[in-house]
Amino acid sequence: MSAAAVWARLVGRVPWLGWVGRWGVSLCSLALGVLTLFVFRRGLPHVGWIVGYLLLLWALFTLMTELRASFEQGGRRLVLTASDYAIQTLYHNLLLFVLPAYYASATLSSPNALFVAGVAAAALVTAVDPWYRRLVHPRPWLSDLLLGFSMFAALNVALGLVGVRPILALEGSSILAVVALTPAFRRHGGVGWKRAHVRAAILAVAAAVLVWYGRALIPPAPLFLARAVAARTVTMMEPVDIVERGRVSADTVAAWGELAAYTAVYAPSGLRQPIQHIWRRDGELLAVIPLPTPVQGGRAEGFRTHSRRRDLRPPLAGRYTVDVVTASGQLIGRLKFTVTP
Fold this sequence. Notes:
Elements: H1 3-13, H2 16-41, H3 46-73, H4 77-105, H5 113-127, H6 129-135, H7 140-161, H8 166-179, H9 182-189, H10 193-213, E1 224-235, E2 238-242, E3 247-249, H11 250-256, E4 259-266, E5 272-273, E6 275-281, E7 284-290, E8 295-296, E9 303-309, E10 318-326, E11 331-340
Parallel strand pairs: 3-11
Antiparallel strand pairs: 1-2, 1-4, 4-9, 5-8, 6-7, 6-10, 10-11
Helix pairs in contact: 2-4, 3-4, 3-7, 4-5, 4-7, 7-8, 8-10, 9-10
């Protein structure tokens, strides 16, 4: 008697086992994901964890892509089911592992919040087994897309953590993620490795171009804004006369004669990233100020930076924003304050 027949007989006798079969893996995957999230927040060497997950996921994906047909012909359904569950769990844990980095780096009032929502949605789908089995499992192309997305998201964070600039990490991650899908290109077309590599190379170039034009939609993880305040000025790298509760009167600003945006940007040790401040009032561009010193990673409180506006002209009242962006245009964070009439 096959394993499937034995399981069906057990479910017939003990109905609640059916619920365990549908939701048990989901609960286990979610528990492992929460544990992974806890490990990330504890500050353990997560670069090694990310690389380990990536290598294990890619190796299992490659192995099953090559052997799935022979396993199906040999009736080894249990092996296939176990490998599918393992891949699903690796997807989930990997996505949940990098989610905090993207959440910290994203600005929820900007378009790059959509990428965070995408990572969270993919983590949720892979956590709930019935959803995954219904949406992803029957569609190999969607599974391949999920693999590419997961590897791209993870590599982008991992490269940043070892000191690679965000835009280089972004481009490198997109290329590596597509190259990792080479076994899938071979499977779909029934071609040899040489042609599969050619297809992967062409798509990798296309992915790099696409990511370049869509870079504003992706948070520059693991960079994030550790602190941001408006003030009268900045002395000895500390803000003076901080704008409390994000509101200051126009008369006060006129008496000051200047305004300063003070921002502390967290970056991993070894990373150097030029940034700029983009000032706006009520959505109208006021100034783009490249900061003279690049952000240098390694300081837990963030690398302190600031820009000043001395050319203040009436009307001063309005809603101000100061965007902190990388030299390539990725938004790190946004300072908001209001000058009242």
